[in-house]
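Tutorial, part two.
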Amino acid sequence: MEILKHVVMDHFAQRSNWLTNIEVRVKLFYIGIGLILNTLSHDITVPLVFFVTSLILLMTIKVSFLTLGLRMMMPFCFGIFILIIMGLHQGETVMFSGTLFGYELAFKKEGLQIGLLLFTKVAGGVMLMLLLSFTTTITKICMAARWMKIPETLIEVLSFVYRYLFLLIEETETMMSSQRSRLGYVTWFKTVKSFGSLGGMLIIRSITRAENAHIAMVSRGYDGGRVLTVQLTPIAGKDYTMLLSCGILLALLSYFGFFW
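Running the prediction step on this input gives:
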């Protein structure tokens, strides 16, 4: 379960550095507009700029490549899968071909170009989200969502999901340790069987814990809402400067990416 700790722990967002000290609304503005530009881009330039820029920013606060690699592992796998599928099924110009297990495979130029664009979009978008998650706590995000008049129900669900995610991980660690002590992972067959029972028990315990938590909260007078009691402070002058800088940077990037 060490991998899960690298994936979900937000201790970087709890630190004090120049990125975490930036106003959360400024960061949400940059990330939101960046995700829109990343999705609408027609070539790989804009996604690559977002990917490299976010990577450099995270390096400045000493985020290790191991942590980033673990978080990017699954998106990269999906991106490579999309690249292969698009290369095999889209286009007409064959770049190279071969035989695998008796099947003739031909990669087309047009399909690979589309697949590469989608791959860079996935990489750039995920890296933007990592930039937000590494530098902003969930409490600040919920506070900004409340400031933006997001429905209280959505904020409440987000807060509870994040809170109980760590309890679910602790429960998974305990169950896996118990299975490991009973030699539940010595063979491939036992590993599959153990993972199956682990998934079923996690679902049951999650439902039970949710019901118990709901009963406990209702018994104490909770009727929904009022998750956050702290309000965001007004945006200061330096925050407006940062917001204007982000706006100019995104405007230039959109110009060179879409009209140059």
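The two ends are 47 Å apart (CA to CA). In part three we will examine how such features are distributed along the chain.
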